[in-house]
Design brief:
The protein is an alpha/beta fold and 341 residues long. It folds into 2 domains: 153 residues, no CATH class; 168 residues, P-loop containing nucleotide triphosphate hydrolases (Rossmann fold, 3-Layer(aba) Sandwich). It is built from 14 helices and 12 strands. The strands form 4 sheets. It has a 5-stranded parallel beta sheet with strand order 5-10-4-11-12, sandwiched between helices. α2 runs antiparallel to α5, α3 crosses α4 and α5 packs antiparallel against α6. It is elongated. The two termini are 19 Å apart. 31% of the residues are buried.
Length: 341
């Protein structure tokens, strides 16, 4: 939808709204939620105290944000974390807002919205003179529609069902497998920030030189040391124990000195081959990240321009052979396409 359609859709959705409510919509779609941030504890407490409207649904704004209802099923702590992480400076926000107000005036001039043109222009002029302060919903809107939401960035939308599952089921060991450049490491880092969990990477368990035999590399999924990963990571985690393990250093092609990671109630295993058949039984929940082929190549070129041929001709085919041989995407509890994340 374009801006005109978004604004008109607000009127169709909330036919009793006032001009003030459309201005709030325009403000939110331009500036997001940066102006509302104080600190995590304050945000969380306010969410916990706010009445929840069970009938509300996700609502897209004309911009980078959505209105996520408090009734969606996320915990107050998770929603507060996403809300804070959505607060960011919005470049050219004022210009965007003024462009949208021009569209609004056109709709009113054409009598597509039931507001007085003269009064609307006066209100907009005063709003501009005051520096475009944030708007509240009108009393009418609050009484009729009971708004109960928080703004979050659209980049979090693909993962909302995952966050809801974690909040309601509290899994102990989670696998994030999937295609290269699909965002496995990024998602693991986000989860570690939201849930204060451990993250273990399959990239730390590349094969040692003596393991890289033709016979092994010819078998799908055998180009990581899943045996050592199971012994050093998954078995201790399954026993609720601290983890002592050694990373493989690609620069020296050797094992580094071991490190100790204290046990935490939630642990993320991220990386291709984390859903190897030898490892699957240890997970409480598994995620498969994918993306469109064109987007994958664009991301790889941006991230590793000098290695793109290796990805295309070697590493991607190895991954795909592993995915297809063991039906990895079907074995995972949830599949997420991150092409637009």
């Amino acid at each position: 939808m374009n801006t005109k359609e978004y604004i008109f859709n607000q009127y169709k959705t909330y036919p009793k709204l006032e001009l003030q409510d459309i201005l709030k919509f325009i403000y939110q779609s331009s500036y997001g939620c940066e102006h509302l941030i104080s600190d995590y504890d304050a945000v969380k407490k306010r969410i916990e105290k706010e009445p929840i409207n069970p009938s509300s649904s996700i609502e897209e704004l004309d911009g980078d944000y959505i209105r996520l209802p408090l009734s969606y099923g996320l915990s107050a702590s998770t929603l507060a974390s996403l809300f804070i992480r959505s607060a960011m400076p919005n470049l050219n926000a004022k210009d965007k807002l003024e462009d949208k107000t021009n569209v609004l005036i056109d709709l009113i001039s054409n009598k597509e919205l039931p507001f007085s043109l003269e009064e609307s222009k006066a209100i907009l002029l005063k709003w501009k003179e005051d520096g475009y302060p944030a708007m509240h919903h009108s009393n009418t809107f609050n009484q009729l529609y009971h708004p109960s939401y928080r703004l979050i960035h659209k980049k979090f939308v693909p993962f909302l069902e995952l966050f809801k599952y974690i909040d309601n089921n509290h899994p102990s060991i989670i696998s994030i497998d999937g295609r290269c450049a699909s965002g496995k490491t990024t998602l693991a880092h986000l989860l570690s920030e939201i849930y204060d969990c451990n993250v273990f990477s399959m990239d730390d368990f590349f094969l040692q030189p003596h393991q890289r035999t033709k016979e092994r590399l010819a078998r799908p999924g055998e180009n990581v040391d899943h045996e050592r990963f199971k012994e050093e990571i998954l078995i201790p985690l399954s026993r609720y124990e601290d983890v002592k393990f050694s990373k493989f250093d690609c620069s020296t092609m050797s094992i580094q000195p071991s490190i100790l990671i204290p046990y935490k109630p939630m642990n993320i295993i991220e990386g291709s081959y984390s859903m190897h058949p030898d490892l699957q039984k240890y997970y409480d929940f598994s995620i498969f990240l994918t993306l469109d082929k064109e987007e994958q190549i664009l991301r790889l070129k941006k991230r590793n321009p000098n290695m793109i041929n290796n990805f295309i001709h070697q590493w991607i085919p190895l991954e795909e052979a592993y995915f297809n041989t063991f039906s990895i995407s079907d074995k995972c509890n949830i599949q997420i396409n991150t092409s637009k994340a």
